[in-house]
């Protein structure tokens, strides 16, 4: 990668320098030629203005006036007859094939066919004027060898300077990329050294506040998530195996006793125990499957319009039918868009939990305010301690472990309720009623479209 980055940077710089150098030479030559042409125009116009309206004097005076550094000047008649010139070699023929008419200014670029043959490629300007009633023209020629030489000199400097600049760019790119990749390689080595048994290890973040530092920070955040996920997985496996061990042990002991009884009477006596323990195992497996689907975002909600008050009354009747405790329902009519089966399971889990921990009475109420339906499930047992009101919705959490286990609770009911309520866009909390009793409250949006 270091070599590729250096070659890419050098290639881009090379293309930019070649294109820029070529453009510079073209513009420089054009500017120098334009400057030479402007000077010929200025000289021709000055002389034409000097002799316009007067009689062209004799040759000696003309020769003196026509001497201009770096330029050749001649005055010709309209018939291309040279009247005067700065040097004798230019007395023989006109610099241009067609002199300018009076009042006209014509500039011919280098290589123009209107310029008479010349060993170099000069630029010529012709300005016409009248003197003594006769038509004349001032022809001014400037050779551009000096300009061409200047362009060649600049080109030579570029030819030497571009490779030197490329070497400097390549060297700097090699150093900078190497420095950046050194940090990346260091991060790679540290990440490679992280093992499952050492997920608490973190990457050293360089104090550069750049992309490399952000990469290290991101890697640390990823390691934190992996550590939390690994801890949750270990805890989940430990809790699940612990939960399954109890019914399996009961089933094993029951089967050993039944097998030892040759009369077969024990099989009939143990049937309720066997059915109860297998039912407990089935319930636990179902709860684990539900949470696994929630973890993979595979809980699909079938939203339809539901009467929330009817769901509350039905679940309260089902849970309270086999309970010795009193259930009080105060639910105002509320229609919500939700998955009826999922919300019914939320209510059932909350009511089961309330029934296990109530002293004698459970209250269920619901109301709607500001497009939000609020359901309160209260029981006259002690409120959940403040320190445990968030933790209680975690999996396999029991605040009263022995009593919950004896009652058949897996410690997953509240976790499932939280998952379903969150999937509906609602909230669920553990709090306390004004009387200081235990309260679980969840909310649902009323107008949530399916």
UniProtKB/TrEMBL annotation:
Entry's localization field: Cell membrane
InterPro entries for the chain: HAMP_dom, HATPase_C_sf, HATPase_dom, His_kinase_dom, HisK_dim/P_dom, HisK_dim/P_sf, Sig_transdc_His_kin-like_C, TCS_sensor_his_kinase
GO molecular function terms attached to this record: phosphorelay sensor kinase activity
Domain (HAMP) ranges: 178-231
Documented EC number(s): 2.7.13.3
Enzyme class, UniProt record, top EC level: transferase
Tree of life domain: Bacteria
A cellular component term, taken from the record's GO annotations: plasma membrane
All residue ranges annotated as the Histidine kinase domain in the record: 239-448
Catalyzed reactions: ATP + protein L-histidine = ADP + protein N-phospho-L-histidine
Keyword Secreted annotated: no
Keywords: Kinase, Membrane, Phosphoprotein, Transferase, Transmembrane, Transmembrane helix, Two-component regulatory system
UniProt cross-references to Pfam families, sorted A to Z: HAMP (PF00672), HATPase_c (PF02518), HisKA (PF00512)
TM annotation in the entry: 154-177
PANTHER family per the UniProt record, alphabetical: SENSOR HISTIDINE KINASE TRCS (PTHR45436:SF5), SENSOR HISTIDINE KINASE YKOH (PTHR45436)
Protein name, UniProt field: histidine kinase
Organism: Antricoccus suffuscus
